[in-house]
UniProtKB/TrEMBL annotation:
TM spans (from-to): 407-425
Keyword hit for Transmembrane helix: yes
Species the sequence originates in: Cladocopium goreaui
Ranges of compositional bias, category Acidic residues: 441-450
Region Disordered, residue ranges: 430-450
Signal peptide start and end residues: 1-16
Keywords assigned by UniProt, alphabetized: Membrane, Signal, Transmembrane, Transmembrane helix
Name under which the protein is recorded: Pectin acetylesterase
Gene Ontology molecular-function annotations: hydrolase activity
InterPro entries associated with the record: AB_hydrolase_fold (IPR029058), PAE/NOTUM (IPR004963)
Length: 450
């Protein structure tokens, strides 16, 4: 296709001012896209968002230097069962494309942005599966179609495009914010084996997989991640058994790639991580009572475990903020842009952990790269059919649901009814405790409580 025709296609494909390109009509090559402008690329094929009536899937590309690549995994919650996936408007995950504006590390005008000249591939997120899903669920969306989570296929399309359009890289950065940080951790090993680079780094912004015990394995298995090709034999077997954790995946990557900096960015009491932890507890019928202080303790324990690896560093700040990188407030965190400017490191360079507060041994950690990475450009995993009954997409009859689903929903309704009756009786009959005691203003004071 002639260059003029490509330009016309980009203009005609604009959505609300966002240029777009369809891989079914064009190669959408890097050199054809306008530099420093976000272009939405539609890969077609099996890519899709979670619901049957969700818009078409696409990922964003912001062209810059062909020798510097930033792969960024977008965040946006998770949908992991029939209740969380029931309604598009109330689902705790993004179910449609949300375009990333040129804020934060995507800003091309701020001189203090350490990634302003990178080519950025922004892996948009609308599948609710941490970018690793490949499953056809048994339950239905509001169009009476089975919910399908294809985040792995979506991310694979973006990574394939990047691999085809860049060669030897002087700098490779893989990053993600919130649940996107989990996707970055799970994809890092595959990406490092796929690209040729002189220096590389992983940036995990505001999600270190702080989840209830024994829930990660079933989540990953339920997403259909086990057969995607992201995991090698041992990890694949653990995934199939429902025992694989994101922590184990990341630790293996850190141990195997000692020349790659692994950097975590977090606030000490991240409110969204607290909410997600409690949401998983509720879904698994566990006590949902994690407080910000509880989370801080769990976070510090996790970071201390990662701190055993020489190539792991942290940037910690007080407060409950969730994610930093994709927001313009990134530049308000004065030390953060400067801290990131040293990544990824070249041989002889050093980066030190940063902590605003009392962080123990974390604040004294430094990592110096002594040699360049040794890597060979490998092959990406293959795209595969989703787990589940892949051929059965249309389900117009509720009778096609699994035989046990009616009992499952009946049990949920019974529990809800019992709770309502209990609450009603409590209101009708005040307890002897509340009847014999008057409350003072001091009873509602938070002082001294955790």
């Amino acid at each position: 296709m002639a260059r003029g025709a490509i330009a016309a296609a980009l203009v005609l494909g604009a959505i609300g001012g966002e240029p777009s390109c369809h891989l079914t009509d064009s190669s959408c090559s890097l050199e054809q896209l306008p530099r420093d402008v976000s272009t939405l690329i539609y890969p077609g094929g099996a890519t899709r968002c979670i619901f049957s009536d969700s818009p078409e899937y696409g990922f964003q590309v912001i062209p810059g230097s062909s020798e510097k690549l930033l792969l960024f995994f977008q965040g946006g919650g998770a949908c992991f069962n029939d209740v969380s996936s029931r309604e598009a408007d109330s689902a705790p995950c993004l179910s449609h494309l949300v375009l990333q504006p040129l804020f934060g590390i995507f800003n091309r005008e701020k001189v203090s942005n350490p990634f302003r000249d990178y080519t950025i591939v922004h892996v948009n997120y609308c599948s609710g599966d941490l970018h690793v899903g490949n499953v056809l669920r048994w339950y239905l969306d509001r169009q009476l179609q089975r919910v399908e989570q294809r985040g792995y296929v979506n991310a694979l399309a973006a990574v394939k495009w990047a691999r085809k359009n860049v060669g030897q890289l002087s700098s490779l950065v893989v990053a993600g914010s919130s649940t996107g940080a989990l996707g970055a951790q799970l994809w890092m090993e595959t990406i490092l084996q796929t690209f040729s680079y002189q220096a590389a780094a992983l940036l995990m912004d505001s999600d270190m997989a702080i989840l209830p015990s024994r829930t990660e394995g079933p989540l990953l298995k339920g997403f259909g991640a086990c057969d995607t090709g992201l995991f090698e034999t041992d990890a694949k077997q653990k995934c199939a058994a429902g025992e694989l954790t994101i922590q184990a995946v990341l630790e293996q990557t850190m141990a195997r790639h000692k020349e790659v900096t692994m950097a975590a960015i977090s606030s000490l009491q991240d409110r969204m991580q607290v909410r997600f932890y409690n949401a998983v507890c509720m879904a698994e019928m566990l006590p949902a009572d994690l407080t910000p202080y509880d989370f801080e303790r769990k976070l510090m324990t996790r970071l201390e475990e990662y701190n055993r690896y020489p190539n792991f560093v942290t940037y910690l700040v007080p407060g409950d903020r969730n994610y930093f990188l994709p927001l313009e407030a990134f530049f308000g965190e004065a030390a953060l842009p400067q801290w990131l400017s040293t990544l990824p490191e070249l041989a002889g360079q050093q980066i030190s952990s940063f902590c605003s507060g009392n962080c123990g041994t974390l604040s004294s950690k430094s990592f110096m790269l002594t040699s360049h990475p040794v890597n060979q450009k490998g092959e990406l995993p293959k795209e595969s059919a989703p787990s589940g009954e892949a051929k059965l997409i249309q389900v117009p009859e509720l009778s096609r649901l699994p035989w046990w689903s009616s009992w499952y929903h009946a049990a949920l309704l019974s529990v809800a009814l019992a709770l309502c009756i209990g609450a009603f009786l409590d209101r009708r009959s005040p307890s002897s405790y509340s009847a014999s005691r008057s409350f003072s203003e001091d009873d509602f004071s938070d002082e001294g409580k955790i």
